[in-house]
Write a structure and sequence with these properties.
heterotrimer; A mainly alpha; B alpha/beta; C mainly alpha; A: mainly alpha; two-stranded antiparallel ribbon; two-stranded antiparallel sheet; 15 helices; about 0% strand; C: mainly alpha; 5-stranded antiparallel beta sheet; 21 helices; 7 strands
Chain lengths: ~375, ~250, ~550
């Protein structure tokens, strides 16, 4: 395993990890330790905002893992994100206890409102954090496993796969909008009070959530790096570029895809779980197909198949979105977003990081070939 | 399923495949003995590639038996299982992993545990590196070791794919048009290479280039409309009336 | 004016018939009964009023209907001092309820109050009283009212009405009403009741079913048995009609799906281009309809019935033109990269939506139905609306036209050539890039036409297209790519399956079930119902 770790940490990856871990420590410190008057003070709303971006970045990372390295374009990853979010939301709802509007000791407000007499069975256990944490990974993971098992085994690929993943998240959205599904219908889950006994509104909690998001992003990045730099990762790329060829070499492509798809869904679930306490609400609109596609464009902007690009893209696009939608330019945001989709696919297919590293590699390669002209080129006629 | 005991390496009996009414293979029967090299010729649409597809599990026949080593029913297995049994295939259009280096292409092809979890725990071993080096020597790509396979020339890709085929250490090699797009000299080299390989393995070659087939000097089977119309030495086959009529021309 | 005259005639009829029907009692006796009945209203207690209603209705008096109508409209008033009953006709004018002549209004008049129970009694009584109305519609309504109220008091009037009814439909309604009354009349003869069961059974709808299954427990055994049998047969007939209804709804939904998907079947199915902005082409077609109607309303209101005929070619041209622009501007650079095409066209769909939102506003725009698309007709137990019917017809027409275009025209030939073997087509001198653009334009233009049709049954808003895009893709994928017949079968199968699932699962769960079924189906047959086989598929 040691070898794996070393192999996965090239210079870029190490630098990236260092930045994320540093952000996890410095931003909360600037928020909590400095007085508000200090020019270096980071206001709490910024901490929460960037915490949200970091969660998006983790989602983007999970999409990049399957799209960039295995060619699986999921247009339903928002569903896994939302399921993780709902699992966390259920835990947070159970923590409200008697502080709800109806002060019911067990039932969340919306159930009392709907005249429900007892807790549905699938809400059992969510008062324990450990159980909720398990579900955050397990529920998206199991759904992805079952979905992928069917899809990959029967070789649904490419656009077809994209369309049915979109149908999957659409179906889930319709379901969660219903009151009798038991997840709060339209309004979703909100009005959270505590997480692990700490007030979710408190500055310290928010800073801690930010730090946790950064650490999970670092962990996710490490897992992805380890995966893609192993032989497993080479097989993934082989499947992406020539799936049939990989099968003829004796690789069971569907097992590889299933593994990486399930792992990716679990990562998305964790991202959703970290997102919910920071934004304070989870509702069925998180399942909207548009959200999932938007997440794909973050990856495309940053550069797919680069991991760091996915993170960068998620943060850049969302920062732009915040800037646009909070100002007078709000009506134009969709023009910008739509234009981004088109411009990136037409003019920047490798994304920002991909283009930079391609350019860098070309330059280095040119430098090398200038020094020594290829040892033994094509097979030559032997006389 | 009636699997007759046969000593042949590969045994096809009465294999029929139709696509939307068109019979790509029409009750094709073919036997290839262990250690043999067989050349398959025939006009376009004779069913050569479809036959390869059936043997490697890409296409399932409507009827007929395909038996490997007298015991494995290939019609009931998929590509992965068949590859693991020891049947390797080189495609008509060279198919290598463009975004991987030449070295990684060979590494992926090397005979090893193909399961996903093995891929996670894998570490480079001395033996594997030596084998890759050896293969690079055979296919003359030592100098291109670090290059992306996608940047190779057409001929180099053909050779890389043959290298990958060797790396798999299959018992039976299916080689589809290995010299398409090669110069005469390259063609000659390829013939030599295949003959060398045939010393240890069973080989089936599909080729249009009659000079190449003649150079191989092996038993030839001519397919037409999905069935065998002639079989024998190159001279016997090329004097066959039907072969001349449908394929070689007068 | 008209209604008062009708009412007068009706009253005359009632009077005459009542005289003929009732053997007992003389005119003064009846007047006495009427006065006594009126007196029941004076107390203004609900129970007394109820007795009063029945008594007034049974009295057969000329004023009976007017009194009860007045009661219904809160115009029946009582003078507490004299216990005399008046009907208020105007600000100051009143009639003496007993005589029907104008009278000076007393100083203090109190309105007789009614509650829901009384309202039902009033309706029943009026039903009996208007059975003899000269207006056929009123008679029919009255017969229906009696059928529901089963008021035994109306029996005599019913008999009289049946005897002189000439309209077959009303006669049947009257007979059914009579049967309903008899069934619930404890002292009716068994033979009458059996005949009644048969009459109600012949009616065969939900209400007949309710009536028969709600029979009192003490009904004679043979009647109960006959009723039970009738319930069974009505239920099976109703189930049959429910099936027909579901099939019709399914057909209607299927044609909407087909309309939305058929353009996609060309761009995705034939060209292999994933156009996520397809829904927006539909939306643009709907907005073209809006603009056309707006212009017509402003300049030539008389042409409104032709608005759709004008909108169809315009929508085709506008959407088709935008489609060609998209193909030339974006898609042609992305051939062979389906996933990128998907993302770029999704971006385009966002831009188009926002553009429409900026121009026309975010809210629904009003698109009207021309007169020939409004209304409905009855077919057995189901109602068929004209707009749905026309859309089914229109969809099939578009489908046939498209097939013909592909089959018989030069453009269709070139299109098929390019999709089957691009390189070969190019070397035969076909300008493939022009064919690509035209094919894409055709697919988009058809989407525009679909928008015209959908504007008739759906809200015209910037989100119109989005609600169809997932369904359309599923239809094409389900039906099998590259095959228009597959799209047809796919659309109708999904539409009908959806509507047959709805009664069991509800609309949302039904839709979810369909999505899950398609996802499972694609696993089983990844290339759809009508899949192409062979080497062509691999490319």
């Amino acid at each position: 395993m040691n070898g794996l770790l070393i192999r996965s940490l090239d210079r870029g990856a190490t630098a990236f990890l260092a930045i994320v871990v540093a952000a996890a420590m410095i931003v909360p410190a600037l928020n909590l330790l400095l007085p508000e008057t200090s020019p270096l003070h980071v206001p709490t709303y910024i901490v929460s905002l960037f915490g949200k971006y970091v969660c998006y970045a983790l989602l983007a990372l999970s999409i990049d893992l399957i799209w960039g390295y295995c060619g699986i374009l999921s247009l339903g990853h928002g569903a896994f994100f939302a399921l993780g979010g709902y699992a966390m939301g259920m835990y947070l709802m159970r923590q409200i206890g008697t502080r709800g509007v109806y002060a019911h000791p067990v039932l969340p407000d919306f159930m009392v409102f709907l005249n429900w007499k007892e807790l549905p069975f699938f809400w059992y256990g969510f008062d324990h954090f450990a159980y909720a944490a398990l579900m955050i990974v397990l529920v998206p993971g199991v759904l992805a496993f079952v979905f992928g098992w069917f899809a990959f085994r029967s070789r649904v690929t490419g656009v077809y796969l994209s369309i049915i993943t979109q149908a999957m998240t659409f179906a889930l959205m319709l379901g969660f909008f219903r009151n009798n599904f038991g997840f709060g219908g339209n309004n979703g889950l909100t009005d959270f009070k505590d997480i692990l006994g700490f007030n979710v509104q408190a500055d310290t909690t928010r800073a801690a959530l930010f730090a946790a998001s950064c650490l999970f992003l670092a962990l996710g990045f490490l897992v992805c790096r380890a995966l893609v730099s192993s032989k497993f990762g080479k097989v993934l790329v082989a499947i992406r570029d020539a799936e049939a060829r990989t099968r003829f070499l004796g690789y069971r492509a569907e097992s590889y895809k299933l593994f990486v798809f399930t792992l990716s869904a679990c990562m998305a679930g964790v991202a959703g779980a970290l997102y919910v306490p920071q934004v304070g609400i989870i509702n069925p609109s998180e399942f909207a197909p548009a959200n999932s596609i938007e997440a794909v464009i973050w990856v495309a902007v940053g550069g797919r198949g680069t991991l760091t690009g996915a993170v960068l893209g998620a943060i850049l696009v969302n920062y732009a979105k915040t800037t646009f939608t909070t100002g007078a330019l709000a009506p134009y945001w969709l023009f910008v977003l739509g234009g981004l989709f088109i411009a990136v696919t037409l003019f920047l297919p490798r994304g920002i990081v991909g283009t930079l590293s391609h350019w860098w590699r070309e330059r280095r390669a040119r430098g090398e070939t200038a020094g020594e002209i290829g040892g033994e080129p094509a097979p030559r006629p032997a006389e | 399923m009636d699997i007759r005991t046969t000593t042949a390496q590969l045994y096809l009996d009465n294999v029929t495949v139709s696509f939307d009414g068109f019979r790509a293979l029409n009750a094709l029967s073919l036997t290839v003995e262990s250690g043999e090299m067989r050349a398959i010729i025939g006009p376009n649409g004779a069913g050569k590639t479809t036959m390869m597809d059936v043997i490697t599990g890409k296409t399932r026949p409507d009827e007929g038996d395909v038996v490997f080593e007298g015991q494995y029913d290939l019609t009931a297995r998929d590509e992965t299982e068949i590859a693991t049994l020891g049947i390797g295939r080189k495609f008509q259009k060279p198919t290598v992993f463009d975004m991987h280096s030449v070295e990684d292409n060979l590494l992926l092809a090397l005979k090893a545990d193909r399961r996903a979890f093995a891929g996670l725990q894998w570490r480079e071993s001395e033996a594997q590196m030596r084998r890759i080096d050896e293969l690079l020597g055979i296919v003359r790509l030592r100098g291109a070791r670090e290059r992306l396979a996608g940047s190779l020339s057409h001929g180099q890709k053909q050779w890389l794919e043959i290298g990958m085929l060797l790396a798999q250490e299959p018992k039976l090699l299916l080689v589809d048009e290995p010299v398409a797009g090669m110069t005469d000299a390259e063609t000659h080299q390829t013939a030599e290479l295949l003959k060398e390989i045939n010393r240890y393995k069973t080989v089936i070659v599909v080729e249009h280039d009659m000079t190449f087939v003649r150079e191989l000097g092996v038993k030839v089977t001519c397919l037409h409309e999905g069935a065998v119309i002639a079989e024998g030495t190159i001279d016997q086959v090329s004097e066959n009336e039907r072969v001349i009529e449908v394929y070689l021309g007068r | 004016m008209r209604t008062t005259r009708d009412l007068l005639i009706a009253l005359l009829f009632i009077g005459a018939c009542a005289m003929a029907a009732l053997t007992a009692g003389s005119v003064p006796a009846r007047a006495q009964g009427f006065d006594a009945a009126l007196d029941k209203f004076a107390a203004d207690s609900f129970s007394d009023t109820e007795v009063g209603i029945a008594a007034v209705a049974a009295s057969g008096h000329a004023m009976a209907a007017r009194v009860i109508e007045a009661l219904q409209n809160a115009r029946l008033q009582v003078d507490p001092a004299t216990r005399k009953i008046y009907i208020r006709t105007g600000e100051t004018a009143v009639l003496d309820a007993a005589t029907g002549s104008a009278a000076p209004a007393p100083a203090e008049l109190k309105t007789v109050r009614i509650n829901n129970r009384l309202r039902r009694a009033i309706e029943a009584a009026l039903g009996g009283l208007t059975l003899l109305s000269p207006d056929p519609a009123k008679r029919f309504e009255a017969a229906q009212a009696v059928f529901k109220s089963r008021d035994a008091a109306a029996l005599a009037t019913l008999d009289a009405a049946i005897a002189k009814e000439t309209d077959g439909r009303i006669r049947r309604a009257l007979t059914e009403a009579r049967a309903a009354v008899l069934l619930y009349k404890p002292d009716a003869a068994e033979a009458d009741k059996l005949a009644a069961v048969a009459a109600v059974k012949a009616r065969g709808d939900q209400e007949a079913l309710a009536l028969l299954s709600g029979l009192p427990v003490d009904a004679p055994a043979r009647v109960a048995q006959a009723a039970k049998d009738a319930v069974g047969s009505i239920q099976s007939e109703l189930a049959m009609w429910a099936t027909v209804q579901n099939a019709w709804y399914g057909l209607s939904l299927g044609s909407v799906l087909l309309l939305a998907a058929i353009g996609l079947a060309i761009t995705f199915g034939v060209m292999g281009v994933i156009n996520m902005a397809h829904g927006e082409m539909v939306m643009i077609g709907a907005y073209v309809t809006f603009v056309v109607q707006d212009a017509i309303r402003a300049h030539h209101p008389g042409l409104f019935d032709y608005s759709l005929l004008i909108a169809i070619p315009l929508a085709f041209l506008v959407s088709g033109f935008i489609g060609i622009l998209i193909e030339r501007g974006i898609i042609r650079f992305l051939y062979g990269r389906p996933l990128e095409t998907l993302l770029a066209t999704w971006g385009l769909s966002l831009i188009l939506q926002q553009a429409v939102r900026t121009i026309f506003g975010p809210t629904n725009r009003e698109v009207g139905n021309p007169s020939w698309m409004s209304g409905a007709f009855e077919l057995g137990q189901i109602t068929v609306t004209y707009n749905r019917l026309w859309i089914v017809v229109f969809t099939l027409a578009v489908f046939v036209a498209l097939l013909a275009l592909l089959r018989f025209t030069r453009m269709g030939l070139e299109m098929r050539a390019v999709t089957q073997n691009r390189a070969m087509a190019a070397s035969m001198g076909i300008r493939t890039s022009r064919v690509d653009a035209l094919t894409f334009g055709l697919g988009s233009g058809i989407a525009g036409i679909a928008g015209v049709a959908l504007s008739q049954i759906d809200n015209v808003s910037p989100n119109l297209g989005q609600s169809y895009i997932i369904d359309s893709f599923l239809v094409v994928v389900f039906g099998g790519v590259g095959n228009l017949w597959g799209t047809l079968v796919g659309a109708f199968t999904l539409g009908i399956a959806n509507k047959f699932l709805e009664p069991f699962a509800g609309a949302v769960l039904g839709k979810i079930a369909i999505l899950v079924l398609i996802i499972l189906f694609i696993q089983k047959r990844p290339r759809g119902l009508f899949a192409l086989k062979g080497r062509a598929v691999e490319a």
